[in-house]
């Protein structure tokens, strides 16, 4: 099992967790995540272009990330984009979906075997977990579509000009855009 990557994912709920616990204001969350994104960009530039080679990179990056931005950086940059673009409920749901549902899907998928594709069972469990995570933050009209977007982003990683569209970016951005569109433009179901 790839526990280091899973722990890195789960640690992503720490800052929004402070907000949910009432310990910091939303603006503080934005600043903390922006600072994290800036640091990640500097570290990735140093890794990719200046040869910075820490042992942690060997343990936390996948093969396709060796010459591309690493998943941790994509997660923090996408969190900053989401945090500064969307209202707190939409952003927090997106953060939690990446920080909880994505590593859970990874653990379940690894437990099934070495196949890199997600099974229908893993996708169904991931969908159910996404629904449970999104329900406290999003209205019912947005919950199911957001869960579908997260499962699709987790299960399928397309390549564009040789670059993998990593789910650490597509999950929070896709969930936030979908949630915001449905909250903003679709009337309540009742």
How are the secondary structure elements laid out?
Blueprint: H1 3-11, H2 14-20, H3 26-49, H4 55-60, H5 71-85, H6 88-112, H7 120-134, H8 140-155, E1 159-160, E2 163-164, H9 167-185
Antiparallel strand pairs: 1-2
Helix pairs in contact: 1-6, 2-3, 3-5, 5-6, 5-9, 6-7, 6-9, 7-8, 8-9
**Beta-strand percentage range:** under 5%
Query: Which spans have pLDDT < 50 for at least 5 consecutive residues?
Result: none
What's the number of structural domains?
A: 1
What's the shape? globular
The arrangement of helices and strands along the chain is HHHHHHHHEEH
Spatial order of the strands forming the largest sheet: 1-2
Give the radius of gyration: 16 Å
Protein structure class: mainly alpha
Tell me the major beta sheet. 2 strands, antiparallel
Tell me which oligomeric state these chains represent. single chain
Mean pLDDT equals 88
Q: How many DSSP E strands?
A: 2
Q: How many helical stretches?
A: 9
Distance from N terminus to C terminus (CA atoms, Å) equals 44 Å
Helix content: over 70%
Q: What does it look like?
A:
The chain is mostly helical. 72% of the residues lie in helices and 2% in strands. The chain has one domain. It has helices at 3-11, 14-20, 26-49, 55-60, 71-85, 88-112, 120-134, 140-155, 167-185, and strands at 159-160, 163-164. Strands 1-2 form a two-stranded antiparallel sheet. The radius of gyration is 16 Å and the shape is globular. The N and C termini lie far apart (44 Å).
Please provide a brief summary of the model.
The chain is 72% helix and 2% strand.
